[in-house]
Amino acid sequence: MKKWLPAVIILAAVVFWGISTNNSLVSSEEDINAQWANVESSYQRRADLIPNIVNTAKGYAEFEQETLTKVIEARSKATAVTIDPSNITPEQLEQFEKVQGSLNSALARLLAVFERYPDLKANENFKELINELERTENRINVERVRYNEVVNPYNSTIRSFPTSLIAGALGFEKKEYFEAAEGTETAPVVDFD
Questions:
Q1: Which of 6, 136, 145, 167 has the fewest CB atoms within 10 Å, i.e. is most exposed?
Q2: What are the tens digits of pLDDT across the range 102-155?
Q3: Each residue of 47-78: b (16+ CB within 10 Å) or e?
Q4: Could you tell me how many helices (H) and strands (E) the chain has, helices first?
Q5: What's the CA gap between 134 and 56, in Å, rounded?
Q6: Which is nearest to 67 in space by CA: 119, 102, 106?
Q7: What is the number of alpha carbons within 13 Å of residue 128 lying toward its C-beta?
């Protein structure tokens, strides 16, 4: 019996380490899922603000129907794309960022049109909605950064030896980072024509 004791202790230690590692990875993965939900929540907040901005503007100015239509269409597309945080792929992130970029472009055009209407710019409700939209854009950026901050240690952990053995055996996979959309290194041009 005594000669089996060291083997039993080693086996028990390995099993305990495996269980502990699994629980730690599950917790990290849930942190990623929760942070992705925060990213989506921030985008939803923006999508919810858009009808208020458009309705306020409609009450104070006549503007291009095409611009309004593009904003509404872009909002619809942006809210239709969802991502399962437990299985984020680069393609899904690219598609998500593409529809959000279309919404950004439509909003920029809408805001440029609004600049033409001094009465609208002076309206306190409109000013507050635009400020709220700006705060929301800042929130979106913060949540994307926080998402990457929880993905980084998780990815490092599952790739580090010996944790990579348990992670691979239990199906824990590398998560994708939220990256800037292609072309965002160039500042957008605001055109009032």
A1: 6
A2: 777 777 776 666 666 555 555 666 677 777 778 888 888 888 888 888 889 988
A3: bebbeebbebbeebbebeeebbebbeebbeeb
A4: 6, 0
A5: 16
A6: 106
A7: 5
